């Protein structure tokens, strides 16, 4: 009897051990599948709600991607100077050329005036109620340009389209709240999936007082970088943003400002240039203390009147900035900007914005704004810009400072040249003369992809019209070798 009982207990014990082993194996297998999920293809009808691996609209849910888990989340991103004086951006020790696009897919009919936060609203917008982010997963390509979603035109999503194009990073400009950082503007699960399923990282921007975002200054006065109260607000804004995202897998770098030296940003940085740049360096020091794993870049204004003075100040006053970023619209090449910068600044250079609009004005350009799309001119402008970046990178020149660029922008934004209630109109109104193909800048037409034409007052916010420039990047410039 004792022998029988002992044998029975032994059998039970072995069964319990086997059961525990199966539970552990199942958990590991599920985790493996989640991390190793095959990237979505633009030919697939992707991401049905039944196979999405974690909640899209609940940032507070705990998942395998939670910073509280033991999984390694963030990459180590550094900059490295080679023996020839050239620069590389390294992600976990591997060279990384930034092939980014600015991403603010604003819904037709909305603007920051009609909906504060309209430019970050895309991360949570689910107008069709299917439980997925509309812009990321539900857009479709109007391949025959008939302005109708034909049965053959399947749901694709912007994330899959960008992956197919060769994009490896998107630039997000900032949280939009004026007074303080608002974590709820960001849907981390969508950004995590952008990285894990599509291999695309995020350049985390902070306006740093541009448009009075972060400083909470009165619009009539603009940001004052000598005001200690505003300075503390902006540092707190930076601190909260960095603490919220620093351990996330999608973060590539931090990017402070956006052409703040330009008077149109209402930041007065050009007025308080020394104070502004000194304060930028203070913010960079703070970020390094909070997050030693990601570099800090800035986004300067390429058309500042006295660039010699500008670059000299950055060299002297901002040693803790890791990457010198600059928005440049100087034609289909960047001209002497490389020599102008490197005369004073020995750092990697990131072209934080570049590109051209797709509209070509005709006739009396400044009065009637008549014209049509010229996709070829836009495409060739982008070609010249990207090839100039490559020419000044270590890929071609071992002493090159360029680490990549960010094409402006993914999709047209119909609100930028509006008068009252015109955000349903795709305006070609000209706000400034610029070195673009028609010598004019049409702010609502910079997209690599167009939106619905609005014919017959019918709008589909999920429609995408891929312009020639999209295929230039996909099939040539950013094609995987």
Q: Which architecture of the largest domain would the CATH scheme give at its second level?
A: Alpha-Beta Barrel
Q: Kindly report the name of the CATH homologous superfamily of the largest domain.
A: Glycosidases
Element string (H = helix, E = strand): HEEEEHEHEHEHEHEHEHEEHEHEEEEEH
Mean pLDDT: 83
The main sheet orders its strands as 4-6-7-8-9-10-11-14
In percent, how much strand structure appears in the residues? 15-25%
Tell me, briefly, the overall form: globular
- Using only C-alpha atoms, the radius of gyration works out to 24 Å
Largest sheet: 8 strands, parallel, barrel
Counting DSSP E segments of at least 2 residues, the number of strands comes to 18
């Amino acid at each position: 009897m004792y022998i029988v009982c002992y044998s029975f207990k032994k059998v039970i014990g072995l069964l319990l051990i086997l059961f525990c082993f199966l539970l552990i194996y199942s958990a590991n297998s599920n985790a493996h599948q989640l991390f190793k999920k095959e990237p979505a293809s633009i030919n697939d009808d992707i991401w049905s709600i039944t196979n999405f691996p974690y909640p899209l609209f609940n940032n507070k849910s705990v998942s395998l991607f939670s910073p509280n888990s033991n999984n390694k989340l963030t990459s180590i991103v550094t900059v490295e100077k080679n023996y020839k004086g050239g620069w590389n951006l390294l992600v976990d020790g591997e060279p990384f050329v930034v092939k980014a696009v600015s991403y603010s897919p604003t819904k037709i009919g909305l603007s920051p005036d009609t909906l504060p936060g309209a430019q970050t609203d895309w991360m949570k917008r689910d107008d069709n109620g299917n439980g997925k982010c509309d812009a990321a997963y539900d857009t479709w390509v109007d391949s025959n340009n008939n302005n109708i979603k034909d049965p053959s035109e399947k749901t694709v999503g912007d994330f899959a389209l960008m992956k197919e194009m060769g994009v490896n990073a998107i630039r997000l400009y900032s949280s939009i709240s004026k007074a303080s950082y608002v974590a709820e503007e960001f849907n981390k699960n969508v950004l995590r999936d952008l990285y894990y399923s599509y291999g695309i990282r995020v350049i985390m921007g902070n306006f740093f007082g541009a448009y009075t975002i972060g400083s909470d200054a009165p619009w009539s006065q603009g940001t004052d970088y000598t005001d200690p109260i505003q300075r503390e607000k902006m540092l707190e804004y930076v601190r909260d943003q960095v603490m919220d995202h620093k351990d996330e897998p999608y973060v590539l770098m931090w990017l402070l400002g956006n052409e703040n030296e330009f008077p149109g940003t209402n930041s007065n940085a050009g007025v308080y240039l020394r104070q502004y740049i000194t304060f930028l360096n203070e913010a960079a020091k703070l970020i390094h203390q909070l997050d030693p794993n990601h570099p800090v870049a800035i986004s300067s204004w390429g058309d500042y009147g006295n660039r010699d003075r500008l670059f000299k100040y950055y060299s002297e006053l901002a040693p803790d900035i890791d990457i010198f970023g600059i928005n440049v619209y100087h034609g289909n090449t960047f001209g002497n900007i490389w020599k102008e910068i490197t005369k004073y600044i020995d750092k990697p250079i990131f072209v934080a914005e570049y590109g051209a609009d797709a509209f070509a004005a005709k006739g009396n350009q400044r009065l009637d704004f008549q014209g049509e799309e010229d996709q070829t001119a836009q495409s060739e402008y982008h070609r010249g810009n990207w090839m100039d970046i490559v020419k000044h990178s270590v890929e071609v020149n071992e002493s090159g400072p360029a680490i990549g660029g960010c094409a402006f922008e993914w999709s047209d934004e119909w609100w930028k040249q509006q008068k009252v209630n015109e955000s349903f109109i795709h305006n070609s109104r000209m706000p400034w003369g610029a070195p673009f193909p028609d010598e004019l800048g049409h702010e609502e037409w910079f997209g690599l992809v167009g939106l619905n034409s609005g014919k017959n007052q019918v709008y589909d916010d999920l429609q995408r019209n891929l312009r020639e420039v999209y295929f230039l990047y996909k099939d040539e410039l950013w094609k995987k070798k």
